[in-house]
Specification:
Helix content: 10-25%
Number of helices: 3
Number of strands: 20
CATH class of the largest domain: Mainly Beta
Radius of gyration: 16 Å
CATH topology of the largest domain: UDP N-Acetylglucosamine Acyltransferase, domain 1
Number of domains: 2
Distance between the termini: 20 Å
Largest sheet: 13 strands, mixed
Structural class: mainly beta
Strand content: 25-35%
Mean pLDDT: 95
CATH superfamily of the largest domain: Hexapeptide repeat proteins
Amino acid sequence: MVNLHSDAWVSPHAIVNGDVTVGAGSRVLDLAVIHAVNGPVVIGSDVVVMEHAVVRGRAQHPVVIGDSVLVGPHTHLNGTHVEDEVFIATGASLFPGSRAGAGCELRINSVLHVNSRLTPGTVVPIGWIAAGDPAELFPPDRHDDLWAVQKTLDFPGTVYGVDRGTPMREIMRRQSQLYTPKDS
């Protein structure tokens, strides 16, 4: 069920599926994918979702995007909450349980990790990773420091509903079942 405000526009070349709400003045451009089959996606007013962005709602982590947000091209928003006036640049990824506070900037290819929270106004530099609650910022070359924070965030449990160490074969069996069309 797509609830599109009369002043919103979704390109006929975008894919919008499931429980999606798009607010006034918002635009979803060509080849963007809004997937809300497993959980809702709510897009506020005056939001632009650019080409090739993927926005995926999850049962335990709906996507909520506030007002006046730019969702840049090739971004990945998965089970995240984005407050008002956030700039999400090309290639940024926001994972389940994450939250970007009002006025944040996630620059090109940055990451907001699972269960991590950016305080309002935080800038995540190009290619950096934000992890923790509140999030610490890590450049890509500080992997060991990042891992010390990241391992406590429960990525496998949050994203796949499994314990760390679950074999990939089991994780992918579950994922395959999750994405099996209901009419199959």
